[in-house]
Design brief:
The protein has six helices and eight strands, in the order αβααβαβαβββββα. About 40% of the residues are buried. It has a single domain (about 5-170), classed as Rossmann fold, CATH 3.40.50.1970. Helix 1 crosses helix 3 and helix 4 packs across helix 5 (about 85-100). Strand 6 and strand 7 form a beta hairpin. It has helices at about 10-15, 30, 35-45, 60-75, 85-100, 175-180, and strands at about 20-25, 50-55, 80-85, 110, 120-125, 135-140, 145-150, 160-165. A five-stranded parallel beta sheet has the order 2-1-3-5-8, sandwiched between helices. It has a three-stranded mixed beta sheet with strand order 4-7-6. The protein is an alpha/beta fold. About 35% of the residues lie in helices and about 20% in strands.
Length: about 180
């Protein structure tokens, strides 16, 4: 979905697909901003339940992913909504893959390491230009070995991408400029 105000359609779309409860993956900035309510309001209106996981670091770590997976499993979520830029999108991709394939994040470093399609992800984008919401690539930091791991996995592609420019209005101007695309 793309266009001004399209985030308002997320709840009805998810309801139509039959999903019941989301793990909403985001970061502290989004959680403390007016952006989160713009995503949760349509979910509330459609009676879609969710639990918020906002412990995603600017460079998501294995611990972030493992903690998110525990929240997902402990709350019996049947899909994921990622809200943010690259970091929440990447964390959600890895949580999605681990939810259906098991293991640990390090197991998926490299090219197409998962056997099963990840849990469905609705990727709500809040930055312009990174494309993290529509790619099969994601990066997770292995804090123990102090390396960034690149995962490329066709099974991690989001079910739906939501690109509503209204979600980008309250972001800092420097972030918008840094993530924008220039021809």
């Amino acid at each position: 979905m793309i266009g001004r105000g399209c985030v308002q359609e997320v709840g009805s779309y998810v309801k139509e697909l039959g999903y019941q409860k989301a793990l909403l993956v985001t970061d502290d900035f989004i959680r403390s901003s007016d952006i989160l309510e713009k995503v949760t309001k349509p979910l509330d209106e459609a009676n879609i339940h969710y639990v918020i996981f906002s412990d995603v670091a600017p460079n998501p770590t294995c611990k972030n992913v493992e903690d998110g997976l525990k929240v997902l499993q402990g709350n019996e979520c049947d899909f994921i909504i990622s809200v943010g830029g690259g970091s929440p999108q990447d964390a959600a991709s890895c949580i999605s893959i681990m939810a259906t394939n098991g293991g640990k994040p390090q197991d998926y470093e490299g090219l197409h390491k998962s056997e099963k399609k990840g849990l469905p992800v609705v990727a709500v984008n809040t930055t312009a230009g990174t494309s993290a919401e529509i790619t099969i690539n994601y990066v997770i930091t292995d804090e123990e070995h102090k390396v960034k791991m690149m995962m490329v996995d066709k099974n991690s592609l989001a079910l739906m991408s939501v690109n509503d420019p209204e979600l980008m209005l309250s972001k800092p101007a420097a972030l918008t400029a840094a993530t924008g695309w220039m021809p």
